[in-house]
What does this fold into?
Amino acid sequence: TSLICHIPPLEFTKAYEQYKDAVNKQDQTAISACGPIGQCNMEEPCCGSMEQLGLFESVLDKGSTKNIICGHDHLNDFSLLYHGVRLTYALKTGEGAYWKTDGSRCGYTELTINSQGKTSLDQIYFNPLSK
It folds into this structure.
């Protein structure tokens, strides 16, 4: 199961902090455990709830949700594993997306679900300025 929502749960911040700590320590095992996909940038604070609302705990309790995909914070584009759940900021394209003039933040997030229900996710970057 995948949950697609606009506002990220608080755990997006926790996942990114865990990942950045591993990167800063150059701990390849910890980086690998975070399962990064794409460039994994966070250029603005995750603008979700400042309170624990129970969404992520419910996801963990039920055990069926493997992906939480959101948008909202236009300059963030990371996809990381956190407690066995992939937390992904979907890539943005188009007017109002705050894209970089070099095209480095443009693209789309591809979620594939096969006939057995297994999912895969990829961040596809492209530069709309190149022809």
Observations:
- The radius of gyration is 15 Å.
- The longest strand covers residues 76-82.
